[in-house]
Design goal:
heterodimer; A: 193 residues; Nitrile Hydratase, Chain A; 2 domains; two-stranded parallel sheet; B: 192 residues; alpha+beta; Cyclin A, domain 1; 5-stranded antiparallel sheet; 6 helices; globular
């Protein structure tokens, strides 16, 4: 057992003894965030916005309320969600430079790279280079808007609908929307890395 | 406070590592346990702002040891400190505020130039910089006081946009901007 695992076990035993946690409650919290919440939620929001202009307008005006319409709410990391739309001239990308803030109700828990010092340090200063390294080449004239989640607002990127998808159903469209596209480090319709 | 956690714009970092474990949230079961411990434990032990500040106060080598290592160490720190002033307190919550917002959308503002010794949500790279208010986000519990057990002291919160060149100098991307959510005490009005 690793040192960290031993220390975690000791702390769990202490907090259990004090009645602050139980094994079952921890299991339930972990299971909820591993099974029930994830990028599939955000993908449904995006697909709905692609298919329904009125929904898109509501989503951009009040992201929290429009996301709650689809049943995705959360008291944790989801009190206020702002949705930022990509377009032909504007690309959005999200980071938290101070810690690891992330819109849990629509994306679940963040991957390790989102929390890495490399991403957090560099994407605010040299976003075009970082995105290119991550496989997203942007025209030099496309404006990049970086959203540093520095306080209580969480951000979700609304990617552009890929061309040639006019005939697809909302469910099929949702399958094209990756976690990375909703963070802003990929386009929709590209295979998730 | 200044520290290892305040990473935005810091030099010396290479490519973002992708693939494999970098795409995952947990790579060991103890990390799941720590996530659950923090998720459940904080409602009793401390508010989220105090937890973030505990992470910031860790020794640099502990901070750099990894995300879940620092969550574990920060939770242990809060248990050891057993600070009644942050126990069973709220955070990240909207509050009604009689005081009207000082700034309106479109106003030019400048962020405070100096760092502070305690918890803050103004990153170092955005200190002393000129930006523009793009959205009023309502009033919220103020992390800078709440983290220290000094009460909620709610403040208006604004999304403020900065050009990359204002933040990082003339070599920065001419077609990039960075927006942050900043509390009213961090801001003063600029002319124009």
């Amino acid at each position: 057992m690793s040192d960290a695992a031993l220390r975690a076990e000791a702390l769990e035993a202490l907090l259990t003894e004090r009645g602050i946690v139980t094994r079952e409650a921890i299991d339930a919290v972990v299971s909820h965030y591993e099974q029930d919440v994830g990028p599939m939620n955000g993908a449904r929001v995006v697909a709905r916005a692609w298919c329904d202009a009125d929904y898109r307008a509501r989503l951009l005006a009040d992201g929290t309320a429009a996301i709650a319409e689809l049943g995705f709410t959360g008291p944790t990391e989801g009190e206020c969600i702002v949705v930022v739309p990509n377009g032909p001239r504007v690309h959005n990308v999200v980071v938290c430079t101070l810690c690891s803030c992330y819109p849990w109700p629509v994306l679940g828990l963040p991957p390790a790279w989102y929390k890495s010092p490399e991403y957090r340090a560099r994407v605010v200063r040299e976003p075009r280079d970082v995105l290119a390294e991550m496989g997203l080449e942007l025209d030099p004239n496309v404006e990049i808007r970086v959203w540093d989640s520095s306080a209580e607002v969480r951000y979700l990127v609304l990617p552009e609908r890929p061309p040639g998808t006019e005939a697809l159903s909302e469910d099929d469209l949702a399958a094209l929307v990756s976690r990375d596209a909703m963070i802003g480090v990929a386009r929709a319709g590209e295979p998730a890395s | 406070m200044d520290g290892t956690h305040d990473l935005g714009g810091k030099p010396g970092f290479g490519p973002v590592v992708r693939g494999g474990d970098a795409e995952r949230t947990f790579v060991a079961d103890w990390q799941r346990r720590v996530f659950g411990l923090v998720g459940l434990g904080l409602s009793t032990l401390a508010n989220t702002d105090a937890f973030r500040h505990a992470i910031e106060r860790l020794p640099a080598e502990t901070y750099r040891a990894g995300y879940w290592t620092r969550w574990l160490a920060a939770l242990q720190l809060l248990v050891d400190e057993d600070d009644a002033s942050v126990r069973r307190t709220a955070s990240t919550a909207r509050r009604d505020l009689d005081r009207r917002p000082r700034f309106a959308v479109g106003n030019a503002v400048r962020t405070q130039a100096d760092g502070v010794p305690g918890h803050t949500r103004l990153p170092g790279y955005a200190r002393g910089r000129r930006g523009q208010i793009v959205r009023h986000q309502g009033a919220w519990v103020f992390p800078d006081t709440n983290a220290h057990g000094d009460g909620e002291q709610p403040q208006h919160l604004y999304t403020v946009a900065f050009s990359a060149r204002e933040l990082f100098g003339e070599d920065a991307d001419a077609h990039a901007r960075v927006s942050l959510d900043l509390f009213e005490p961090y801001l003063s009005k600029e002319d124009g």
